[in-house]
Amino acid sequence: MPLEVLQQAAAEMTDWHGSGMGVMEMSHRGKEFIAIYEQAEADFRALLNIPAHFKILFMQGGGIAENAIVPLNLSRGGKVDFVVSGSWSEKSFQEAARYCQPLLAASGKASEFTALPAPGSWQLSADAQYVHLCSNETIHGVECHELPDLKALGSAAPLVIDFSSHVLSRSVDWSRVGLAFGGAQKNIGPAGVTLVVVREDLLGHALPACPSAFDYKLVAQNDSMYNTPPTYGIYMAGLTFQWILRQREGTLQGVAALEQRNIAKAQLLYDAVDASSFYENRVSPASRSRMNIPFFLKDESRNDAFLAGAKARGLLQLKGHKSVGGMRASIYNAMPLEGVQALVDYLREFEKSHT
Ligand SMILES: Cc1ncc(COP(=O)(O)O)c(C=O)c1O
Predict the structure, then answer these.
(1) How many angstroms separate the alpha carbon of residue 62 from the centre of ligand 1?
(2) Quick one: 100 and 135 in the same domain?
(3) Do 312 and 205 share a structural domain?
(4) Which of 69, 102, 189, 215 could staple 237 via S-S, CB 3.0–4.6 A?
(5) Same domain for 231 and 305?
């Protein structure tokens, strides 16, 4: 989280804008919270240039719940094509089997998820209800840098993206997307809020078994207040949106400014890893994530010493996911370039003292 956002939330914790209440104490139907909600929604729409024919839903349940909620709403119990490019899309593929007929359109498993399968190789079915893609695989560090044009690939199905771990780090080409979902806890705010951006024509097709609170149409009709929304999380998300709107890099502003910064941050770290014979990143360059950078010490017996030295310098949470091992630097929007530079300096220092 950006420090400024945390400081603002702390300052407003017990009394929001002179209302005499903290945000956690407000009714979600009161004018104060409605104002917070409407501003957050408008800012998110502006930041990502979301066209008017898409609804923005603030839901609960996180990305894992969306693995069920999306097929419940969009699959009509029929076929769905899945591109499995890492752990998260694999989970989505498995969960969908409870509600529809998931088909494996492509899998990166044979290459141990070190590359996004090339869109030209995807086996898309003629009658799929949608195509699922995780546009940034958080654990494997595989990012889709250009959303596929499904029409050009011969599919009339809408594209569903799980953009949990790179939302707001770059722009989105909405002409190629039917639905995008993402948990808030990487680039937006505290866990507990899930953002869903859905094209209006995809609403209204939920399976009868779909819980009402997860029926996108009902949620949209009620401005995300069919059930009590995660109010404090939405407020924090709103503060982050305002922070992003204030970001500048030269003439760039907002998400464009962050995107430029994210490219520079990732480049700095990849270059340091690639230049060394002590560390390695196994993801093919065209699929490398700007947000999640897994890397390995070639001599893995040094992992514990590496992590201990990092911790001593305040470089935290570098241990890779248990399914992949090694290290992983998650350099989300709020991580400044100086933070990445500090890691790069440590990489060099550790290498020098161990060779
Ligand atoms: C890409 C992606 N999808 C889904 C999830 C699951 O999110 P949650 O644990 O909030 O359900 C995560 C969590 O890290 C993720 O990175």
Answers:
(1) 7
(2) yes
(3) no
(4) 189
(5) no
